[in-house]
Amino acid sequence: MITVPVESRKSAHIRLTLNAEPVEVSFAPYKTLLEVLREDLGHTGTKHGCELGECGACAVLVDDKPVLSCLLLALECDGRNVLTVEGLASNGTLHPLQEAFANLGAAQCGYCTPAILVTAKALLDENPAPTRDQIRQALSGNLCRCTGYLQIFEAVEEAVVKIAEQRKTSTHG
Amino acid sequence: MADSEKSPAPSTKNRSKSKDGELRVIGVPRRRVDARAKVTGQTRFADDIAFPRMAYCKLLRSPHAHARIRKIGTTRARSHPGVYLVLTGKDVPIEYGILPVSQDEQALCVDHVRHVGDPVAAVIAREELTAFEALDLIDVEYEVLAPICDPEEALANPEPRIHSYGEEGNIHKRVALAFGDVEQGFAEADEVFEDVFFYQGNTHLPIEQHAAVAVKDPDGKLTIWSSTQTPHYLHRALAKVLEMPPAHIRVIATPNGGGFGGKSDPFQHEIVIAKAALLLDRPVKICLTREEVFYCHRGRHPVLMKFKTGVKKDGTIIGMHLQTLIDGGAYGSYGVASTFYTGALQTTTYHVPRYRFEGCRTFTNKPPCGPKRGHGTVQPRFGQEVQLDKIAEKLAIDPAELRLRIVESSDTVTANFLRLGTVNLAECIRRVVKRSGWNEKFRKLPEGRGVGLACSAYLTGAGLPIYWNKMPHSGVQLKLDRGGGVTVFCGSSEIGQGSDDVLASIVAEVLGLDTFDIRIYTGDTDLGPVDLGSYSSRVTLMAGNAAIQAAERAKDLLVTAVAERLTVPKERLRFADGHVFDSAAPEKGVTFAEAVSLAEARFGTIGTVGSYTPPESPAHYKGGGVGPSPTYSYSAAVVEVGVNPLTGWTTIPTIWIAHDIGRALNPELARGQVVGSVYMGLGEALMEEQQFRRLPKKLSSAFVHKFPSMLEYKSPTTLDMPDVVVDLIEEPDPRGPFGAKEVGQGPLLPIMPAVANAVYDAVGVRIDEVPITPEKIIKGLAEKKAGRLPRFGPSHFPQIDWPEALRVPPPWEGGDGNAVNHPPRDGKPASQKEKVLTP
Amino acid sequence: MMRLPLFDFRTPRTIKEAAMILDGEGANAMPLAGGTDLLANMKRRQQMPRTLMSLRHINDLTDIRLDSSTSRLGACVTLASLAADSRLRNGFAALSQAAAQVATPPIRNMATLGGNLCLDTRCNYYDQNYEWRKAINFCLKKDGDTCWVAPGSSKCMAVSSTDTAPALLALGARVRLVSRSGEREVSVADLYNNDGMNYIKRRPDEILTEVIVDSLRGWKSAYWKLRRRGSFDFPVLSVAAAVRITSQGHVDDARIIVGSTASQPLVATEAGNFLKGRTLDRETVAEAAALAARIAKPLDNTDFDMSWRKKVTAEFVTYALRELRGDDMRAERESITRYAFPGDLIDIQ
After folding, report:
1. CA nearest C337 in B: which residue?
2. Model's pTM, two decimal places?
3. A13 and chain C in contact, CB less than 8 A
4. Which of chain A's termini has less CB crowding within 10 Å, N or C?
5. B530: phi > 0 → left, psi -120 to 50 → alpha, else beta; which?
C-alpha cells in the first residue's frame, strides 16, 4: 500500500495571512492545513476529532468562509487568508462571541468551541441578525457532545445583541 | 463580565449587606473560571502538548476478533527509515485493569487477542506517517479462533474461552441478591407484569480523541500528560506495569475534550508511550484515530433484561424481580461493578418492599464495555420506566399520578440498604407535568403526536473507591499567599463538567473572594492530593466538601489573626468582597491580603488541607459496595414526539425536565449539564448504537464494529436537538457542599423511556428497546395492523444458571444489612474472593 | 491523527494544461477540487493516487453562466455558491435543494459540483479505514475479491451517494468532458454505470469541466433526501422529480429519479411516462409513486434498514410530486430536513 513519490518527500513552502499577520511556513507536503497550523505554526487552538470531515472540530475561516482544515491541503493555502480562534480577540479584548460563549456556558469541555466560534463569526459577518433556525443551520456542521447546543445558540444570540450595540455606539460616538 | 475577569470593585456598602448565610458566589450564574482559556483556544488538551525531539507512536491492532498470537516479527519495521523503536507484548507483559478483581488487560497482547482493535505492537517513529506505514511491516502470525458475538452465544459456548478467569466458560460474573421474598409479593399482587427489554450498547464519542504525551524527566522519573478522567488510577496502573515506584511517576490529567466515562480506565496507549519514553529517553506522543477510540470504548453495555413486577390496584409496588444479561465485551473493565449497577438503583425512586436481582455479564469478542454516563443504571431504568407506563395504562391511572403515589421519601433506607438523602422526585414530577401541559396532552393529542413521562435517580458519588482502602476519596490543599492569592490544589480532573469552577466557587464563597482571584491546580498527581477522579458524579460533592473543609480551616486562622488586630470578637467577622470586616461595623476591616499577612505573622506560612470520606453504608452484604452514595439526585422528564404513521419518522419538538439538584452551585453550568445529558440521552433514544457485523461464516471469521466512524455513529447535530425546558429543583441537601447534589449524569436517564412512552402515546406501539428507530416503529405498526401485540422488542430472556441468591432481609423485615445465608462460591479459592467495590 | 499518504502535486493553470497532465499520468493522477471526498478516501487509503492535480487555479471552472436557452455551471462552483445563487431557482430548484443538503455547511464551502458528480460510490464495507478493511480481508472495490454486500456477486454494490446527480438527471442536464484528445458532452443520464467500481463513464484522462442545462422553461423540480440526521449524512434514498405542466394542468413531460439505492441514480421511466397527459391528482401521484418505488432495490450497505428504505421510497416520491403540484409541504420538509427549509429554495414557478 505504500507509494512514495520522490518529489513528495521534499518540504513545501507557502506564505499566507494567518490571523491578520503574514506568515511563511515550510512543511511536509502531504500535510493538511490542520496539521500545519498545529504542528508547524504552533497554533493548537484548532482541534480535530476525526480528520475526515465528519465532526467539524477543525473548522477555520479561509478567505472568510468556514472550511474544514483537515480536508484542505496546506499546499492549497498559499496566498490565502486564514482565521483561527487565536485571531478572534483583538488587542486583548475578546470578540463578543467569545464573551458570550464564556459567560453563558456555551463552552463545556471547550474542544469543539474554537471551530464553532469561527463558524459563528462567519455567520454574523454575513448576517448580523440571524434567526435561531439560521444559527442552527450555520452550526450544523459542528458536532458538540457536551452542551446539547442550546447554550451555544443563546450565546450567538447574545453576541448579536452586543455587536449591534457596539455598532450603535461606534456610529454615534 | 469584562474581559479583565474581575467582578466589580467591592464597596463597604455591599459589605453591610453581607448577612449570615447569604451566598455571594454560590448560586449566582457565573462565567466559569476556565472559560476564557476555552474560548480563546488556549486550553491545553493532551494533543496540544509538544516537545522538541518528540516521537510519535502508532499501535498495530488485531484484525481478528479472536485469535492466538503465534509469532510477531518486527525486523522489517525496525529497519524502516525513521523508526526508533518497536514494542511488543513481551516489553510490557504485566496485567492490569481498573478493578482489582479484573486485572485482565495487557498494554500489548502477548499471546491472545480478544477483539478487532486489540493492540499487539507499537511503532515509535520520527513522524506519525512513518509510524503508520511501518505498522504494515510488522509480521504477525495468528491462529484464528471462533469469535463469541453476543451474550447468548457466550452462554451457549464455554469454548473457546475469552479469559481463563471468571465464573465459568465465557461468563465473567453472575450475581444474585434477594431482599425479601418476591414470590410472596407476587402472590399478594393484584396484577403481575412481566416484560423483556433490550438496551443496545452505545459509546461516549467525546470529540477529543484520547491522546497522551510521556516524557522521561531529566532525573529519570516519568511524566505523562493524558486525556484521562482518572489520573490517580492511571498512576497506579503505570506503577504496576512499569514496575516503578509511584513516587517516580507524575500523571497530569489534561483538561478532557469530553469524557462521559470513556476516559476512566487506564489505557494501553498510555502505558506503551510511557514505556517508550523511558526506553528512548525522548518525549513520545500518541493521539488515537477515531476508529481506535471506538476500540477503546468502555461504553454502555448492551443489556437484555426481564422485569417482573407485582402491584396493587392502586399502583403500589409490592415486589420486583429483575434479571439482566449483559454483553461485557472482551475485558473486565468496570464490568463487575456495572453488573451490580444494573440492579442497584431500582429501589431508589419508588418504594419497592421486596426486590430480587440477578445479573450476568458475559465476555464477547468486542471492544470492552464500561462506564458511560449513568453507568449500568441507564438500561434497567429504561425497562422500569417503560414497564411502569404499561402498569399505569392497565390500572387506568395517569402515569404521573401513579408515580406520585409511590415515590420514595427522603432519608429512607431502601430494601437493598441504600440510604437516600433528600428526595424531591415528587416536585420534579409536578413541575414537568405543569410545564409541559401534560394533563391537556396525555392521551389527548391527535394520532401521530404524543407525550411520555419518565423519572430517574442517580448517585452523587460512589460510596466506595475502586480499590479497598480507608483513605479519603478527595483531598484539597490550600495555599494562601501574603499578597492575597489563594491557590487550590486537588487531584480532580476537569473533563468539561466544570469541576475547577466548583472548587473555585466554594473557596471563593468561604473566603469572601471572587472566583477569578483564585488559582486552581488540578489533575496533577505531583501537585495535588488524591481525588479519585471524574466518575460517578462524585467531584462536586466530594472535592467540594474537601474544599469547604480546607477553606474553613484557613478562614479560622485568618479570623483569629484579624480578630486580634481589630479587637473584634471572632464570631463577628465576615468575609466578603475581598475583605474581612466586623459585621457590626462594616467599615472596620482589613483587606483579604492584609488578613493573610496577619495570619502568616501569627501562625507562619498559611496552608490548610481538607478531605472527604463518604459515610459508611448500611449495606454490609457482599455486593453492597455498589449503589451506596452520600445522596442521590432525581429527575423527571416529559418528551413530546411526532411520529409519521406511514414512515415511522420521528420528530421531537420539546423536552421538559426537572432535576432535583439540592443546590446549583453555578446555575449556568448546572443547566448546561442538564441539557447536555438530555442531548446524550436523546442520541441513545433515537439513533446511537454500537453495532457489530459478523461476515458470512462460510467465507470469513471476521467480526467487526459495523462502522467505527463519526459519520456512521449517529450523534445528533444542531438540527436534531429539540428545545429543552429545564427546571432545577433546589432544596439543599445537608450532605452536599452548600447543599449540592449531582447534575452531570442523572438527567440523561429519564429521556429514553420518556421517548418510548411518548411514541406509545402517539401511535400506540410499544418499542421495548433502544434506539427507537423509524424501522422499529413501522414494524410495530405492522403488528398492530395485523391485530397482534403492537410491540417491537426482544421476545425472550434466556435460561441462565443463576447461583443461589444472597438473602438480605430488608429493613422492615428486621434486616441489618447483612446476608442471612452464605451461598457457596463454586470452588473458588478464598484468596480470589473479591471485595466488590465501585465506581 | 490520520495522515495522508505521499503524493506529487500539480497545479495546472488551464484546462489544456490539466488535460496534458492527465494524459501523461493516466489513472495514477486524480483531479482535486474541493477535496472533501478524495482526501478523506486517501486518509483511509481507499484511493491512493500518485499525483494530485489541483483544479483550483483554473479560473473558468468557477463560472455560472445562465442563458434562456442553455445554462453552464462550472465544475468547480462550490455547492454553497450553487445553493445560494438566487438565479438558480424555479426550474433549477431540485439542484439548489440538492446542493443545500449535501453534508454540512463547511463542506459545502469546499465541495464542488463536479466533485459531487464524480463522488466515489459508498458502502459501509468500503468507507472504512485501512485497518478496518484489513479485518475483513478487504472487499471487491479495493484490495479484495469479495463483495461483502452480495458475496456471490461479481459486481461491486457500492451506492451512488451524490445528491446533485439525481437532481441534474431530472433537469436533463449533460456534462462536458475534456481530454487531450478532444472533448465530448455526455448527458447525466448516460454518465453512470450500475457498477460500484466502474461507476462513472469519465475516463481517467478526462476532466469534467462544466454542467450544461438546456432551457427549463415550464419545468418545476424538487429534490427530497432521506438521511438520519439533519446534516452530515449522505443520502440513503433520494428522489428528484421534474415536471412540465400545461396551462390546463396536465403533465406534459416528467422525470422521476431515485437516487442512493443502486450504484447509479435510477430513472423511473415508467413512472415518468405514466404521469404524461395526466393531472397530478391523488390517485395519479400514488400510482406514479408506486411505479417509481418499484425500481429501488436498496441493499444492506448504508445507514437504515434496507427494507425500510425500500418501503419509504413511494412516500418520498409522493412528497416530491405533491410539492410540484403546489401542495404546501413545509411541515413535511421540516420534519425530514429537521429545520425550516428555506422557502426560497422551493419551486414556485
Report:
1. B719
2. 0.97
3. no
4. C
5. beta
